[in-house]
Amino acid sequence: EAQVTQNPRYLITVTGKKLTVTCSQNMNHEYMSWYRQDPGLGLRQIYYSMNVEVTDKGDVPEGYKVSRKEKRNFPLILESPSPNQTSLYFCASRSSGAGQTYEQYFGPGTRLTVT
Amino acid sequence: GNSVTQMEGPVTLSEEAFLTINCTYTATGYPSLFWYVQYPGEGLQLLLKATKADDKGSNKGFEATYRKETTSFHLEKGSVQVSDSAVYFCALRENTGGFKTIFGAGTRLFVKA
């Protein structure tokens, strides 16, 4: 089954304690992306990756890091989480290519609370 | 920059009512347009899409037409069901550069039996 998986689904942590949210896709997609969803703001892109070892900032990258060492995995790292990073996070993937209209496939989400 | 604006919710309807959720966009060039749906506790799923002006996307009784002259992509359904209760996101995908997808704020729909 084609899918994007994220772990953990729920996480409560304290300010300053480093954490990683994993994301994996089994569709051999080149493009992967992280979003955060906040009430009234929709989805905002944090980082994206066009392929292995190619990452770039989205609209709200501050306080986050990513890496893309393998095509299937795209972890999101919060080196020193703060309460304003409390949010619902989604990983997504899609095929790449100019002129295409490939849909994005989303993971189930990770609800993060930073106290 | 490019942006998507959709009507604020929540929208509350009775079963079998007609649904319209408005979406307008600002974009340079010729973006592709999408509606995604998010059911409670789940990630977003593609509902329908349109890639060029006057295209109509449709799925599960939902429809939306890409109107370049009014820069709109309104979502409609003739008769909603309780199971349609969800959050609906309008989105555009730029067709240049990084092919970024930009989402609207989402519209929550409640359908009462």
Describe the structure.
The complex is a heterodimer of chains A (115) and B (113). Chain A is an all-beta fold and 115 residues long. Chain A has no helices and 11 strands. In chain A, strands 2, 4, 5, 6, 9, 10 and 11 form a 7-stranded mixed sheet that branches. Chain A has a 4-stranded antiparallel sheet with strand order 1-3-8-7, with no helix packed on it. Chain A is globular and about 40 Å long. Chain B is mainly beta. Chain B contains no helices and 12 strands. In chain B, the strands form 3 sheets. In chain B, strands 2, 5, 6, 10, 11 and 12 form a 6-stranded mixed sheet that branches. A 4-stranded antiparallel sheet of chain B has the order 3-9-8-7, with no helix packed on it. Chain B starts with a strand and ends with a strand. Chain A binds chain B through residues 4, 31, 33, 35, 40-45, 48, 50, 56, 58, 90, 92, 96, 98-99, 101, 103-104, 106-109, and chain B through 4, 32, 34, 36, 41-46, 49, 51, 89, 93, 95, 98-101, 103-106.
